[in-house]
Amino acid sequence: MTLLSYDRYCDEILVQTDALRATLKGADLAATVPSCPDWTLRQLAVHVGGAHRWVGEIVRGRATEDVPEEKVPGFEGPAADGPEALDAWLAEGAAATVAALREAGPDAEVWSWAWERSTAFWARRMTHETVVHRADAALAARVPYTVDAEVAADTIEEWLRIVSYVQEQGDDPEANELRGGDRSLHLHATDVPGAEWLIELGEERFTWRHDHAKATVALRGSLTDLMLVFNRRLAPTSDRVEVLGDAELLDFWLERSSFG
């Protein structure tokens, strides 16, 4: 698996936002989001749209440090409460952020909280922020959820990189536990050839690679469902996936890679 192109990430921010908007259409915006129980469906949508606007502000201003939320125009959501206003606000925010990303190109240096301070980082991050929260919205609205295989695979890989980065920083006690014991996890997509990951918990840190190998625990299912389990949007006990071996190790990983 390889990174998607910068243009593809920009396209996907719009594609995923449009799919989120379609999920929200006609849904009960006051419904609780099962996978984010502190939020209603409307609050989830505002979180996504606010994140888009925040990144747009970082990119447009070529920010060299974090931009406070209160400095981001429209961050708190649309002025009106109705679903039409929310829909327009989501569309406008995503379009403006993508326009800023396209104008800047992939190599512009901007602030980020992570390992890479570039517009390329933010294009990828906003793609998967929207992919995963669209899954949250689908759960709340009780509608089907699908995502392109290349995007689903990259969502898994980006999350592995984020968990790895958090572990490297050494500040998160749960991420620090993802090591040792000569243990491993194997993710195996049953519908996409080559979509497999072997995660090995080494003494100093965990590592991963694409490999078909025996592991302490294996998770098998469609690529989309693997991504959903890995992001804690689908329970590993679901009949849509199969867990072989030490299920407690999979639970251990999921619990310690949640970051709250």
From TrEMBL:
GO terms assigned for molecular function: metal ion binding
Residue intervals of the MDMPI C-terminal domain: 150-251
GO cellular component, one term: plasma membrane
Domain Mycothiol-dependent maleylpyruvate isomerase metal-binding residue range list: 12-138
Protein origin, superkingdom: Bacteria
InterPro entries documented for this protein: DinB/YfiT-like, Maleyloyr_isom, MDMPI_C-term_domain, MDMPI_metal-binding
NCBIfam families: maleylpyruvate isomerase family mycothiol-dependent enzyme (TIGR03083)
Name of the protein in question: Mycothiol-dependent maleylpyruvate isomerase metal-binding domain-containing protein
Organism: Streptomyces nanshensis
